[in-house]
TrEMBL record:
Matches recorded under PROSITE patterns: AA_TRNA_LIGASE_II
Gene3D superfamilies: Bira Bifunctional Protein, Domain 2 (3.30.930.10), Nucleic acid-binding proteins (2.40.50.140)
UniProt record similarity statement: Belongs to the class-II aminoacyl-tRNA synthetase family.
Protein name per UniProt: Lysine--tRNA ligase
Oligomeric and partner information: Homodimer.
Organism in which the protein naturally occurs: Candidatus Komeilibacteria bacterium CG11_big_fil_rev_8_21_14_0_20_36_20
One GO-annotated biological process of the protein: lysyl-tRNA aminoacylation
Positions with a binding annotation for Mg(2+) 2: E412
Binding site for Mg(2+) 1: E412
Taxonomic superkingdom: Bacteria
Length: 496
């Protein structure tokens, strides 16, 4: 199926395939059997080919037909399973004239088929399965995309990922990489004594990050609940409860715009470590990225991304938020009022909404003037307190907190800070967030009084970090759209 195939063409082929299915069923063929006798895979068949060829041993393989070449009384085809692709050779005199006609007239590209046969090598020395029997496992009623043209339309690719995976081999490579990254991340934290946990996705208060939440309703309890924007406040409850190292690979939800770096549903790894601080954690994360990149990059630390070669060899530069913003804007941040910052934002053609507080303005100015220049792995440290309502204050620097972000190729890959363990300080910060929310800021954090109560029982000095796994896959997979690394991204519904 090319990109220009008409709906009427698809409907016509659908009707033709229905007729073929009916013909098979009239011959008492079960076109959707529940079982197969497959006893080997394509990869194993190819690996053991010489031995199978010598012994003339019968094997049973199964897979989806991806090409067919009919030649009178014989047929060459290729079929594919999860492990690879293999050629099969079907002859009329081998399987019988009646069975051959049944196959020739009623089987299509896309059908799942079981083949019983033995190893055979062609004149061109291609390893092949000489077929003795053909058994259909699943009749395909719609045509696959044309393998020559592939599936190019991004919108169609993301909506019909199953077809994307079938005809674009590199897509599967990205998701295999994603799986490897998550396994390696889990391995690293497990090796360092962390306990993996699960915390609620449905929460009474949307806390732990500045974001607009999704709202749902629980009918039995008669209450509104929020899809979590972060697992943070529950993970810290576990630190209060006696755990010292916990992490969660968490699906999170933020009711925000969609662009090349944002999807409303995303995955992050969030971890908390008692008796440590953000300075220690920067070193720990440098070792984490060294471990991870080597795992997925054949032991190398340099990754190609677009026109850049990203080098993950530690140590990474550490840039102070105030210093880099002062330099970029030619100001002294501590002596610049909110109104002056708003004017700077307007001059920079940022849509400075009247609801933006100082923290939001600073964040947008940083994204405009600083972040676009951060290509190699770089720690941005010591953020203004308005940007970090859950971070511990930086000693000796009023108005700043112990926080870092790791930025690579202009994207925030992880965010970490020394956690507030002063319940009265946390309570005051929540009150300030509540005022922002009352003023109309839908991204202000919810005030979780139950968490404040938990803090009053005491929490040791703790550091926490969130790692955006989707963005990490984008970086290491050299793709520039988050939809490429999420199997089923959020899409606008079609009218029909």
């Amino acid at each position: 199926m090319t990109q220009t195939r008409k709906t009427t063409d698809i409907n016509d082929e659908y009707q033709q395939r229905l007729l073929k299915m009916n013909r098979l069923q009239k011959q008492a063929v079960n076109v959707y059997p529940a079982r197969t006798k497959r006893n080997t895979t394509v990869a194993d068949f190819l690996q053991n080919f010489d031995s199978l060829l010598k012994k003339e041993k019968k094997v049973v393989l199964a897979g989806r037909i991806v090409s067919i070449r009919l030649q009178g009384g014989s047929c060459f085809l290729h079929f594919r399973d999860f492990s690879g692709e293999l050629q099969a050779f079907i002859r009329k005199d081998q399987i019988g004239a009646e069975e051959y006609q049944l196959f020739k007239n009623n089987y299509d590209l896309g059908d799942f088929v079981e083949f019983i046969g033995q190893a055979f090598i062609t004149k061109t020395k291609e390893p092949t399965l000489l077929v003795n029997q053909v058994i259909i496992l699943s009749k395909s009623l719609l045509p696959l995309p044309d393998p020559h043209y592939g599936l190019k339309d991004p919108d169609l690719r993301f909506r019909k990922r199953y077809l994307d995976l079938l005809v674009n081999p590199k897509v599967k490579e990205i998701f295999d990489l994603r799986s490897q990254i998550i396994k390696s991340a889990r391995q690293y934290f497990d090796q360092h004594g962390f306990t993996e946990v699960d915390t609620p996705v449905l929460q009474a208060v949307a806390g732990g990050a500045a974001a607009r939440p999704f709202v749902t309703h629980h009918h039995a309890l008669g209450i509104d609940l929020f899809l979590r924007v972060a697992p943070e406040l529950y993970l810290k409850r576990l630190i209060i409860g006696g755990y010292e190292k916990v992490y969660e690979i968490a699906r999170c939800f933020r009711n925000e715009g969609i662009d090349h770096q944002h999807n409303p549903e995303f995955t992050q790894l969030e971890a908390y470590w008692a008796y440590q601080d953000y300075e220690f954690l920067m070193g720990f994360m440098e070792k984490f990225f060294e471990f991870l990149v080597k795992k997925v990059n054949n032991n190398g630390l340099k990754i190609k991304n677009g026109d850049d070669i990203l080098n993950f060899k530690p140590p990474y530069p550490r840039l102070d938020f105030k210093e880099v913003l002062d330099q970029a804007l030619k100001i002294d941040l501590d002596k610049t009022s909110d109104s002056q910052l708003r004017s700077l934002a307007k001059k920079a053609k940022l849509v400075a909404d009247h609801l933006w507080g100082r923290g939001k303005i600073l964040d947008e100015l940083y994204k405009k003037f600083v972040r676009p220049h951060l290509i190699q792995p770089t720690f941005l440290i010591n953020h203004p307190i308005e940007l970090s309502p859950l971070s511990k204050k930086l000693p000796g620097r009023p108005g700043y907190v112990e926080r870092f972000q790791l930025v690579v190729k202009t994207a925030e890959v992880c965010n970490a800070f020394s956690e507030i363990n002063d319940p009265l300080d946390q309570e005051q910060r929540f009150k300030e967030q509540k005022k922002l929310r009352a003023a109309g800021d839908e991204e202000a954090q919810g005030a979780d009084q139950e968490f404040v109560e938990a803090l009053k029982y005491g929490m040791p000095p703790t550091v926490g970090i969130g790692i955006g796994l989707d963005r990490l896959v984008m970086l290491l997979g050299d793709v520039d759209n988050v939809k490429e690394v999420i199997l089923f991204p959020t899409m606008r519904p079609k009218n029909n």
